[in-house]
Specification:
By secondary structure, this protein is of the alpha+beta class. It contains five helices and nine strands. A hairpin with a 2-residue loop joins strand 7 and strand 8.
């Protein structure tokens, strides 16, 4: 019997005139059967080595080149293949400086999207990435090790002069109340100068770990100036290798939809209130 569909509070049809989305990406990681380690890779464990990558790269490019014709070699591509596993080395774009972007390296592949973003577009590219990967590694003992869906959102906020905890409570529905003696009289201001917060939750649908990461940061604007921001990552990460859906034609799209549903719910739970009203309003 199929498990009941989770009851979410926020409908999927919510439309925002403006989005704080900085980037969305899906990351796939794997290892290959490695029965004969080279001398250079003896210091690496089997699970960190993708011995088929040099051959798979060409086949991967043949699969994606019609849709992603612009190829970019990253600095990491200059390292030997047995160094820096699970690090992307080659990037493929739909057009120069355009998104979406597909990336691949030994034991890792990603699809990244900024603008224009819709879940339908991103989902299609995620399925395309999987098809390209399985085609490139056809006949290889591919062992999935990680699947991660992550959304990064940016909120302008001057945490240098304003109280970040008040922003979290008043705008993001995260109320953190500490001792009145922290920082106490020795503090130069009542709010923290920096914030780094991670909330991790065990999920049942999909079987995964969900993370909400919030941190103060700086973003370079068009004039080259560093502007203070609040950075929020919403992530769903597969719980273990046994439940990784990469090789299953039916479970992979279901995992994507379930993971996206969690992130959608958490995002609107965070911004529900004044921020949501701001994003729904036209400029």
């Amino acid at each position: 019997m199929a498990s009941p569909k989770p009851a979410f509070h926020f409908p999927t049809e919510i439309h925002l005139e403006r989005k704080p989305l900085a980037e969305a990406w899906l990351e796939l990681q794997w290892r290959t059967e490695n029965k004969q380690l080279t001398t250079a890779s003896m210091n690496l464990s089997d699970e960190d080595v993708d011995t088929f990558y040099p051959l798979a790269l060409g086949a991967f490019y043949q699969h994606v080149r019609n849709n992603y014709p612009v190829q970019e070699a990253l600095l990491t591509s200059q390292f030997p293949d047995n160094i820096l596993p699970h690090t992307v080395r080659h990037r493929f774009r739909v057009a120069p400086n355009q998104w979406p972007v597909i990336q691949i390296g030994p034991g890792i592949a990603t699809v990244n999207l900024i603008e224009p973003y819709t879940w339908q577009l991103f989902r299609r590219q995620a399925m395309f990435l999987r098809d390209a990967l399985l085609s490139a590694y056809q006949g290889v003992d591919l062992r999935p090790s990680a699947i991660i869906l992550r959304y990064r959102n940016v909120f302008p906020f001057d945490h240098r002069s304003q109280n970040t905890l008040e922003f979290l409570g008043g705008k993001l529905n995260l109320r953190i109340v500490g001792s009145p003696h922290i920082p106490g009289e020795i503090g130069e201001k009542s709010g923290p100068a920096e914030v780094g917060l991670n909330l991790g939750y065990m999920l049942s649908k999909p079987l995964a770990v969900g993370n909400i990461r919030i941190m103060t940061a700086f973003q370079t604007d068009s004039a080259g100036e560093n502007q203070p921001i609040i950075l929020i990552d919403l992530e769903v990460r597969g719980r273990n290798e046994e439940t990784n859906p990469l090789l299953d034609d039916m479970l992979f799209p279901t995992w994507l939809d379930d993971a996206h549903a969690v992130i959608h719910e958490w995002f609107f739970a965070l911004i529900d209130g004044p921020l949501r009203q701001e994003f729904e309003a036209s400029l």
